[in-house]
Amino acid sequence: MQLKNDLLIRAAKGEVVERTPVWLMRQAGRILPEYRAVRESLSGFKELVETPEFAAEVTIQPVDILDVDAAIIFSDILVVPEAMGCTYEMVEKRGPYFPATIRTEQDLKRLRVADPEEHLGYVLEAIRVTKRALNGRVPLIGFAGAPWTILAYMVEGSGSKTFSHARGLLYTNPKLAHQLLRMITDTTIAYLKAQVKAGANLIQLFDSWAGILSPAQYRTFSLPYISEICNAINDVPVTVFAKGAFFALEDFSKLNCEVIGLDWNMEIGKARQQVGNSKTLQGNMDPCLLYSSFDTIQAETIKMLKEFGPQQHIANLGHGVYPDTDPEKVKCFIQTVKEYSNIINS
Questions:
Q1: What predicted TM-score, i.e. pTM, was given to this entire model?
Q2: For residue 170, what are the CA distances in angstroms to 75, 151, 177?
Q3: Less CB within 10 Å around the terminal CB: N or C of the chain?
Q4: pLDDT digit string (tens) for 141-154?
Q5: Per-residue model confidence as pLDDT tens digits over 45-78
Q6: Residues 6 or more apart from 132 whose CB is under 8 A from it?
Q7: CA 101 to chain CA centroid, nearest Å
Q8: Which residues of 202-234 are buried (b: 16+ CB within 10 A; e: fewer)?
Q9: Would you state the pLDDT for residue 312?
Q10: How many CB atoms lie within 10 A of CB 309?
Q11: Angle at 162 (CA atoms; ends 158, 163), nearest 5 degrees
Q12: Given strand 259-261, what is the order of strands in its sheet?
């Protein structure tokens, strides 16, 4: 299907664009009253994720309401461990919880390499439903968690400030860690390929807990698996977003991906120098900017756009938009990107 707005895809590929494309991580979510209305009509988060028609509805809401240049399928990175046999619960106001963790060889025997059609078919159907409803208006982004981040949840059992169980495993039983990472990687490659087949126009890999590893550990337990995933996905552009991994930007420049996401702690000029000119950069406004005044949002957004330059940039926040953010402030950020970059490129 021909895209009516293909700015994101062209920018990702490093092609010349008329203006900077913009979308937001977590744009389909609690900032929108329309999302909350759908969520409150259901039993909870998991029912929303696992019901393709509802997942498609909330995926498209930001396109209609916020006027972003892309939709990202409404799902969760934790559908992968669940598909592998490690189920999670989403506890209100506390986040994910795994009743049974993976910490021993015996625990590993409970897992499988998931078949995407059999174990993640609801996500693939949500992609298909969303694609039909979008009718080519904007691209649809598919995604998954990077293997290290998925391991961190499966071993820890929940979110954590330290992830001491997960990090400890890398020292106490590195063989088990690599076995688990292997299974996660195999599942993720099959899952992302299935997302592309279902209609995803671009893939993003989230390494949310990259920054809690030392550089040496990251290069041993995360980077090789990310590289393998990037090598396997070659039909659509791939974005790697590794929060806190400022130390790995030069390594990322060698990955077989098109886009590197920056979080708000990364300096734009230094990142460009380290990554080089072969990749598009995505990001990286601090989500907390959106708590400030409209004037401040406009000024800081223009400052960011000047630093990135008019090409090889996808405007975004440096992490997901926070749930208590005023949607009007989000619209201000998006419109500022569009208006300023239109002027610069005209």
A1: 0.97
A2: 28, 11, 6
A3: C
A4: 999 999 999 999 99
A5: 999 999 999 999 999 999 999 999 999 999 999 9
A6: none
A7: 24
A8: bbbbbbbbbbbbeeebbebbbbebbbbbbebbe
A9: 98
A10: 13
A11: 45
A12: 71-72, 140-145, 202-207, 238-242, 259-261, 280-285, 313-317
CB 12, CB 202: distance < 8 Å:
yes
Q: Any idea which residues carry the catalytic annotation?
A: 26, 30, 39, 76, 153
pLDDT of residue 346: 61
Measured CA to CA, the distance from residue 341 to residue 276 in angstroms comes to: 22
The whole-number pLDDT of residue 283 equals 97
Cβ-contact 166, 222 below 8 angstroms: no
CA distance 156 to 281: 31
Helices (DSSP H) in the chain: which residue ranges? Answer: 7-12, 33-40, 45-50, 52-65, 79-84, 105-108, 116-119, 121-134, 147-156, 164-172, 174-198, 215-221, 223-232, 249-252, 268-275, 294-308, 327-345
Given its phi and psi angles, is residue 95 left (phi above 0), alpha (psi -120 to 50 degrees) or beta? left
**Residues in CB range of 286: below 8 A, 6 or more apart:** 264, 317, 318
Question: What is d(CA 246, CA 265) in angstroms, rounded to the nearest whole number?
Answer: 8
Contacts (Cβ under 8 Å, ≥6 apart) of 216: none
* C-alpha–C-alpha distance, residues 26 and 262, integer Å: 15
Chain position carrying tokens 């991906």: 257
Q: What are the angstrom distances between the C-alpha of 145 and each of 127, 142, 225?
A: 17, 11, 11
Stated length of the chain: 346
- In this prediction, the residues of the chain whose per-residue pLDDT falls under 50 are none
The residues near 143 (Cβ < 8 Å, ≥ 6 apart) are: 72, 73, 75, 77, 203, 204, 205, 206
> Under 8 Å CB-to-CB from 234, ≥6 apart: which residues?
256
What residues does 261 pair with on adjacent strands?
241, 282
